[in-house]
Amino acid sequence: MDNLANKEFNPLKLENQLCFTIYAASRLMTRQYQPYLDQLGITYPQYLVFLVLWEKDGIGVNEIGCKLYLNTNTLTPLLKRMEQLSFIKRTKCCQDERKVRIYLSEKGKNLKEEAKNIPLEMAKSLNCSAGKAMCLKNELEILIHQMLK
């Protein structure tokens, strides 16, 4: 029987909240990553920025923000910190000085080699099949796109 049709279903119980399940999973996932990221000397949000830049270097702050669903106010301090750590270089565009492009430094590029095994190690630690993980990821992407409409 569908929980919503069940008269005993309590919509205000914590265990019935999709938002809490996603929140808890996100926090626990980040915690699983931490030992690997500690070895690299980076945080989880920095790791996400690296993933974007390793895929396409020299992109604008807005493009990074779109890929990570972060606004500029959240992203700018993160990028400034990464620049202070010599992982990236922020360069103003010649055509429009209000726009900033982000480039990996040598240190940032070299980190890719050190990070390459993180996805495999994470998959092992989660004890989740690749098929199940991909199915869950696809369902969550559908949810994200529905919320962005």
TrEMBL record:
GO terms for molecular function: DNA binding; DNA-binding transcription factor activity. Pfam families: Staph_reg_Sar_Rot. One of its GO terms (cellular component) is cytoplasm. It is found in: Cytoplasm. Keywords: Cytoplasm, DNA-binding, Transcription, Transcription regulation. The keyword Cytoplasm applies. This is HTH-type transcriptional regulator SarZ.
